[in-house]
Structures
1.
Amino acid sequence: MNSEFSLIYPDLSTRNAAYAGKNIADISDDTCEQLGLGYLLTLKNSSLSEYFTTDAEVMRYRTEGFYDLLDNPDLKDALMSVIPILNDIVELRQLDADMSGTTESYLYSITEIELYISCVEKLNEGLAPIREKLKSRSFKAMAERVKTLCESDYYKELNRKLTELTDRVREIKSITVGVNLDSQLRPSSAGVLSINSEQFKSGELLEKILRMSFKNDEYTCIAALVPFGRGQSENTKTALSYAFYSAINDVFKASVKSWKMIVQSYVLDNTDFLIKIMPEIEFMVKGSEMLRQLKERGYPLTVPEIDVSGAVTFRAEGLYNPSVAEQIAEEIVKNDVVFDEEARIYVLTGPNRGGKSVITCAAGIAQAMMQLGMPVPADKMIASPADGIYIHFPIGAEDTIDKGRLGEECVRLASVFDKVSGTSLVLLDESFSSTGAYEASYIAAEVILGFCKVGCRVIFATHLHELAARIPEINERSKEIGGYPVDSLVARIENGKRSFRIDREKPDGKSYAGDIADKYGLSYNRIMQRIEASSKEK
């Protein structure tokens, strides 16, 4: 039976293409962490960056599976029930590799078959009640495959033979050893005469009294072998134990060695597909749990329309940031974000804590989730795959000692241009905040002009209102070099309060410094109030 089954690739060609480095998106684990997606979806057996794809068919295949998991909670339970057994098989194989050719190795093969049968039966029991409810190609194929395994004649025969062999092996309680002596009563040769289903009796008087029998038989010891008595060195004991062990090993080879071949020729072919997809199971289950939590809190999820026309597209209606939604109690504000031929690049301005960073990350998370094959956090979305998501967010000062803060920012951003293409998504948040407004606006304008030439989708969230004011100038320069246009997004203030709404409009030119000063009690009026209140208390 073909062991190339996958929950995340619809066929061998798409899987092999991914393994060869084709149709994958450059979205790093660090990018996921900074966007907030790493907080939502944490994996133990693999990295999230391994699952990003640019193949629309792969995305659709996974989306089917995620909805099966959402619609059938018992499916998750069935999958998770076999993970500990599969982990035991993996551990057993590692032990087996260290003891190849030994009796333990042969016995491990029996244990592996036992685990295999237990795994298949448990999975079949879990899938049987929901088999007809499954709709995805991936889980329908898995359920059918497991059912076929359980109903196969070979599987039934394997189970029967395993029972017989297990009974025989586990019945072994002792061996009878024969030793030939020479004329001087010295051992000249020794060997195993028989394998017994009973343990021998010590032959001591007390034991005979306890069992009310003074009769000696073939299972009564008349003299203990000296190395297992007191006063013998460990080397002597080890030598005799090894001799017995080697003899037993020879005996077992005849009856157990053939089972090793069964493991290799049959069991490995039929369990490897489960072991290989263990990381895939974790990815699908953890991803579905993240989606389930959003649904249970009343947040919408939508299957994105994947634009494969070759156009660079991103149109999201009712977009929200799921990382923020998970952490707040009140209803989250949703926004629309549209990249089109009139705006591939946005300069996003507005007050501090007005939602600029939230919506910037939301766009990145939605694109990333689409390329994981998940439904996305929006009312509606159509987007083309990105070959990579590149971010430039504020970081710590660990790399600023030699370069300085501005130098570090410039080095990081320059490296983005080594990778970015027209299909990329680039997200910048408060870049160049470490220098003065004039220098920052100048550098930022040059950077934006570079992105205009590349033609990638960009959101530049910034406090630099001077930069937003330069958009007409940047667009003139972009037109001269055949670049794409820039437009403005504004985080709105309504009735003096942050609305967290993001609108596509020209900036009003406000720096919102007064708003910030008032919020933290540092406006003139707020300062006067504090002084007056303090005077009254005195």
2.
Amino acid sequence: MSHREKTDSRPSKDSSNYIGDDEITLYYQQLKHLIKLWGAARKSKTKSDITAFERCLTDITDICAPYTLFALHQVIASIKENIQSVNSRELNLKQAIEKIDNLVNKLIKGSKETPDPMLMTYEESVPTESIEVFAKPIAQKPKFHASTNTVAVIDDEKSTREMCGAILEQFNFKSLLYASIEEYQKSKPKVELVLLDVIMPGVTQKQVFEFANSQFQNGTRVITCSGLFTLETRLAAVRANVADFIVKPFNNTSLIEKINRVVQRKKNAQYTIVLVDDQESMGNFYRTIFEQHDIHVEFIKTAQELFDSLENLKPDLFLLDMFMPDINGLEIATMLRQEEKFDFAPIIFLTSDDTAETKLSVLEYGADDVISKQTPAHFVARQVIARLNRSNVISNFVSKDALTGVLNHGQIIESASSVLRLSKRNNTENVLALIDLDKFKEVNDTYGHGAGDRVLCTLGQQLRRSMRDTDKVGRYGGEEFIIVLQGVELDDALAKLNDMRENFGQLKFQHGSKYFCVTFSAGVVLLNDYGQVRAAINAADSRLYEAKAAGRNNIIGKDSTRH
């Protein structure tokens, strides 16, 4: 595939959103004064010197208040967090001095760069080597709805709130922004996730984590954000059942990946277990137990029935009786492990024989655990759920492309094949799209492979967030991605893909002082028209070639209809 040329799409300085020359001069005067004050404060450690240092920080904030200087505001907020932590005795002075030294050094380092990254506005910059998101989300077509999760951002820094909100909206999250926990509680929103600043005015860290734990108890997950990265803070987060912890200033793509992981973890709470037992009474008993935990149970009485059904089964765990007529559970486990698609599905045995020898035999035959039939039902459920949760984490990890977070090559091909097999039986219509970044080699050659990786990661995350739960997104290889859209007509799929193409093409990526945009093209086919997935991919590749030849940045469907 060919590759896109370099584009410098830096916004014009004519906009009033950009910091003026007078303010820049004043900022550097204050920065020089700030450095002197910090030298005095770290040496004397007196309250008066620290207060003078804080006052200078406030003066700098006032100078830059009209401008959304995200990186600068984050550094200043982190310095103030560390000072507040000393005042509340949550951090000792030695630790705070070390952290503030690093933050002040960032300001000094920035002043020696052209342009100064601390003085680059919301629309220009990002606080780390990451991507920035400027484009407004494009409205979705009514016939095709991707899932949209709602995330609350609680942070007293307005620029941080707005930046997080813009990033979330771009990746198909709905964002609600709050300046304090009190404001959030008064609003009583229904959200799937809370992005929570750890240090804010008017509340202690203890109160912040008590709030986080109360959210968890009510079924809402929390990710905390802070410039502090101490053992005490991390431990407090764990004890408050916080789902993840992000250190400020954060990398935007890492933020989205962490949020996706937490949301996906919650989404996968409903599991399917295949229970194999020749006694129907046992099947009914365990079905009742697990359905109380929102776990679906497929009860199968014979080995023959099990293997006749394997093509249609996608269980998260197998629960097997050890002893059955004409076959034992160990033999069933051996045959299941010969099926590649069940490599990561735990196998647990239910048996009245829970001797050490039996447990060792179970492990040797590829199973994962043994549960005695005398174990109380609620303990069985807890043990099985623990296995399901851990298996889900491992399965997601090994099935995903490490860079982009979407399915890897093998998994997207397997997923597409599974969709094709089921569609032929169920007579459903499915679409396969092959997506390729335009002139991607020029991105790597001009801006480096790090910039190229950020583009790939951003596209992967955007595709993933824009699709419905039933659709499949994977990295086919290099800069190519495959999407499989289930139960959708070709015209609706083309409309959706064009929305995504336009949306992605509006993003601006930063490399130093340079800005560039990247587009993609796609070839689209009806998956059901082909006997094998490889044939469908080849046909989509032909359409993709036509899209490239026609000028790139477009999508061509099966009948070479240009969009």
3.
Amino acid sequence: MPLKAPTKLPFINREISWLLFNDRVLQEAHDTTVPLFERLRFMGIFSNNLDEFFRVRVASVTRMLAVDKKDKARILYNPEKVLKQIKNIVLKQQHKFEDLYSNLLLKELADEKVFILNENQLNVSRGQFVKNYFRDKILPTLVPIMIDKDKPFPFLKDRSIYFVVKLFNQDEPLKHKLALIELPTDIHSRFLVLPETNNLKYIILLDDVIRYCLEDVFHIFNFKSYEAYTIKLTRDAEIDFDLNDLQLNLLDSFTKSLKQRKRGKPVRFVYDQAMPRDILRFLKTKQHLSLDNLIPGGRYHNFKDFMSFPSLNLPKLNFTPLVPLDIESFNQSNSILTAISKADRIVHLPYQKFDYIIQFLREAAIDPKVESIKITLYRVAKESMIANALINAARNGKRVVVVLELKARFDEQNNINWTEKLMDEGVKVLHSVPNMKIHSKICLVTRKDKGITTHFANIGTGNYNEKTARIYADHSLFTANKKITHELHKVFEHLERGTISGTYSNILVSPINLRAQIEKHIKKEIHHAKQGKKASIFLKLNSLSDEKIIRLLYEASNAGVKIKIIVRGICCLVPGRKNFSENIQVISIIDRFLEHARVFCFGNAGKELMFISSADLMLRNLDMRVEVAVPIYDTKVKKEIKDILNLQWADNTKARIINKEQNNVYVNNNEVAHRSQLETYIKLKIRN
């Protein structure tokens, strides 16, 4: 049945849905089938995710509290209510997190003869080792600040961890001093591996190295006792721009705004809940914090560092490496451009080598018949082979145009650095279309031979970033199909003019026609279902939150269209609701690789249409970013992608059901176990 506009949709708030996603990450840390060190790393991922969530999303919701009543009425949810829900969920997750680490993982590590010691568990020899390390390496990098209660409190940096140190004597506990120490985790590893004894491995955290040696830090004072409590402040990371500055000097404006970000308003203050109440009250007052900002935590913060937990040469406690695979159809040709001219090719990352994308650019850089290379870059590796290949092309006299998005959150400074390097080498660097991020992942090589111009394209669902390509599961298409390349050429022409416009018959470009085309294809499936024909939609996404698209998917479900959705993160759609979504099934896969591909499939009365894209079905991607989706015309490539989608849909090991209860239950159909990421790797290996 059609849904009238006023109908209240079943709709999960996006912030709450994101927290449910992060809970799935925490599930991986609980999963005893995951190697033990990898479970610690999943705790690091959970912690890092939560930091960014507070820096961006909670900060944005908090800003909404300040808008006037008229504007607040246009917000689709109550920000006060959502902030309370967020805090309640985060506190519950924090409790699960602390319990997992303290009561389970440390014991399981001990069972494997790996011990994470604290400062009270050091024997004489290990204690001396720690003392020597501290004096040689750590002490010179510490900057202890004595706290004067009558003076302003020292500035706390975003995401850094600090000790608030209480210095006192046992016989006069009320006569104490306070000091602040920033832990130098940007200089030293968070983990110190201690000498091995009898095949037993020992690690101590940098936190406890410093705790053990506090007397060395404050030896000039006449105190005998020291207590150190960890605190961390998370600040609003949104960047505000002066539009006049943007017109004058884009790079200078970004540099100025990045400095302002470092002094953003506090949105979360995490503290060791063992901290004395009088010290907590003092910190709250000095930092001008509200009760809503306060999050009680454990002894250790910034578990994001556990993403780099040492491997300790214990293979069974780490994932078995999956070496990226060769692609024989590329290897059999001396030229990647020649191979692409014969048929479309696709690389499935990280299962197959990212090197083919590098080779594509390197070949274009030295081919005397190649005239130009144009590419959009969003997140670039700090040591980027992609950027170096583009520099090489410029040095070889090619016209190289890089559309580099400065507003890639948390990569702004890196992108500024690469802008300067590329421009110094003669590369033409362009930045944002006004009021939009350029999020597309497209590259176009133009070659002229005997008066005939040929375009070769690469279109990806993920960034041109060799570092993330090792862990992000994406698709990267190579094609010389004129239906695609001629329209990509048009996209670049408009981007070079600083606009995004034009008419596109084959590719989908936001904000021009991507939304309209997705809606058109959903409506076609509704039409087919009403005619009694088979009708289906299969979507693979990172996030699904656009209200108009969700409303259409509900209408399609009511019309009888069978809808399958694989979503990694946010899913505001509620499956399984009577009169709305009874024909919609949604799963989410969290495993060793981060599912990052976006694929749109429409049954089309038996003539299936498939698109891959950089765009999620979110308002910002459809209406406020430059995104590109391309059709998959090659039947072999289409089958490869569909085979992977089907493997993922059959996953009953790492797939969770997204349901109306929002409880992240695993798919459990009592069939033979299927783990899609491992099976994808095996399938691609056999195919080659």
4.
Amino acid sequence: MNTKIVGQSIPRIDAKGKVTGETRYSGDIVMDGMLHMKILFSGKPHARVISIDTSAAKAVQGVEAVYTAQDVPVNEYGLQINDQPVLCGPGSSIPDADIVRFVGDQVAVVVAETEAIAARAVKLIKIEFEELPVLTDPEEAIKPGAFSIHPKISVSNICVHDRIRKGDVEAGFAQADVIVEGEYRVPAQEHAYLQPEAGIAYVDENGLVTVKAAGQWTHADQKQIAHSLGLPLEKVRVQYPAIGGAFGGREDMSVQIVLALAAMKLNKPVKIVWSRKESLIGHAKRHPMVIRARWGATKAGKLTACETTFIADGGAYMYTSNKVLGNATITQTGPYAIPNVKSDVYGVYTNNLPSAAFRGFGAPQAQFMAEMQMSKLAEKLGLDPVEFRLRNALQPGDTLDVQSPPPGPVTAVEVIEAAAQRAGWEKIAGQWQNNRAPVQNLDDKPWLAHGIGLAAGFKNIGFSFGYKENSWARVEIFGNGMIEKVIVYNAAAEVGQGNHTILAQMAAEAIGVTMSIVEMVTMDTLDMGNAGSASASRLTFMSGNAVKGAALQARAKWDAEEHPAMVEYTYLAPETTPFDKETGKCMPNFAYSYVAQVAELEVDTDTGQIHILKIISADDVGTAINPTQVEGQIEGGVVQAQGYVMMENFITKGGYVLTDQLSTYLIPTIRDIPDVVESVVIEIPDDRGPWGAKGLGELPYLSLAPAIISAVHAATGVWFDEFPLTPERVLRGLGKIR
């Protein structure tokens, strides 16, 4: 029997249920005696809650309970640090929990017999606020004399400061023949997952407070819920139903703790479903940043020095700013060798919505700057952008800005060459050039300007900076003489990326059976070890290695006549080290993947509209466990990144959200996406990954913004250092409007 399953495009195991509507998401769950919850947001960017009058809400017929800060046993939470109240208001168990720091801070919850009753009652809650001054500009927030948003945490409002000091930057600039300086502004971005925040909580027959809501890391959710409720960890169970997208936005809590609080107090099932408006206000966004850069290179096209300053808006609470900005720090030089680097990366508390994880995790912002600097240097040197990149691309033995070599296969050259060749570049007389680059204008449509641009990037696989990366799995083999059933236990979150399908493929391959007898038991803290988060492009590598290890050992037991055969296995990744506080020197990661992308487009110089003709994305995935899923990830990442650079315009003013619905915050639809997305799958196995595989989810996002903006420059001669490239911004850049 042919059991070669890894490398095959097996249909997704969750596909049928999702396309037929049989699969239940958090908002689909109904239980007997279920109550409904509505949350009252602060609606204030910065204020002290003097008093909360809930009497009118409690008097509404059908209202079961109203909870405020005084009802939360341990009124604090946070994925990195406990700097956010569960509910803001007086009477809290935690000092300073009476201050709201952004408009989406939660102040009270109403639990009622119906959603309509809860919605009516929540409007009757009366709050007396003492307005406090508001800081929404991170550059203003770190000036001397600015008030502190979290005085017990950071007097300066700086929540993160990472430093890089590699080589001698001034000597590097002295060696440079060309120096390019730039200031780049990258915007916030809304995750816009299909399924808004929703969930249900109840106390089960064993007395466990059980929460069913979409997330990205069951065990981290469990820990935060248990902490806030003052319960032992083993008294809380977190279970994920089907998840309608995440992209990093579900790493942090939204509805889980207040649902668990109400279920625990009432001993009844409690459900909530956020509206899209509540979702847009209530959860974090991609980090907006101001990045100032100065890069130097010689006439021979070799980089000599890089000096940068990042000022990132962390918003009201830490969330994952420390980790996101750490990742921006290590990827800011792009996939290039630069001998001298000086950088200061700041995360700043403001009264804006918190900033958090989003696909790429700081690398898209950092590498936008890096690739813009590379393209501008190439232009100033008179070098082809591909040729210039290849002269500086990381090679084995080169060091990153953190003074350590990139681990594993270093494939920057391979992905750049693959993307360039597909787009028409050739190596002629020893140098790369594109002889088929489109002309600026069509004779019959002179208002359409054509351009092509290329950019590259790289991204870590797995958690960084000394975290002991691990993932647990259990595999059980059953049968009477022959193998009849395989059960795989792994808590990894399936957020739409296809992880459970490839884990089933890996288990089947390792044991030597067909997929039809493999059963997956997933996304639960009960009787399962920690699989880690669905983030950092880590699950293929980490949970894949865990399942492979358990499956191989279980098969060995089976072959030794141990029936049934059961094995628990925890995979431990190679060790990493944290930043040196003064220089940034470290070995931050155990694996990287590389990407290069080409954008070909036309700009309507009369309207400012940009039409993407073709995107080529060359992605190093190590080994494609499921090639069709790889292509799906590439296409999805490209479209999401296209929205980021071209149309998604999240607007706030004074801490208030102006684009609070999808009619004002626009994301790409079928009419906006590229005409063609060409996936170039590069397979250079990493021998530490399962069957050589590495992570992919973030790769196709990383370098699309600079590729598109370089193509717009090729078409129009104008550099855009800020996006999204709305028609208004394009026309302003072209000098057509003021």
